[in-house]
Inverse folding.
């Protein structure tokens, strides 16, 4: 009797923990103006005025952050490089540097990073992946 109660309890706990797991098929955020902010592992549907098909952009991770720390003097502002998927293809790399404008060209669209959050702190404080938010712009 005790054994069957224990097995039932274990089964209920496992069912509970599995159901509490985050849904990997979270719906995409919609950006009707072609511009929006995504956090790491978020997906956005970027609409472009006059275009039938929006671009599905998934922000996978930041692969490089060479921005100048607040406690340093730099001759170059640096850049952030992100890994993304576009319409479930990729991964692609896109950089925030103005020198690489437009950062990425995909299916006739320009994909750019227009803002990086959070701002770079001092050189001793690394930014965690889950803290990054990037503003993407998709245009003709």
């Amino acid at each position: 009797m005790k054994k069957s109660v224990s097995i039932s309890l274990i089964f209920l706990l496992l069912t509970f923990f599995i159901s509490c797991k985050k849904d990997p098929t979270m719906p995409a955020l919609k950006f009707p103006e072609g511009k929006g902010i995504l956090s790491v592992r978020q997906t956005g549907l970027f609409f472009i005025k006059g275009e039938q098909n929006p671009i599905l952009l998934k922000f996978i991770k930041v692969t490089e952050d060479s921005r100048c720390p607040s406690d340093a003097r730099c001759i170059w502002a640096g850049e952030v490089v992100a890994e993304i998927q576009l319409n479930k293809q990729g991964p692609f790399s896109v950089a925030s540097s103005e020198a690489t404008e437009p950062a990425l060209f995909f299916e006739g669209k320009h994909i750019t990073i227009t803002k990086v959050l959070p701002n770079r702190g001092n050189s001793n404080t690394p930014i965690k992946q889950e803290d990054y938010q990037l503003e993407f712009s998709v245009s003709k």
Notes: Helices lie at 2-19.
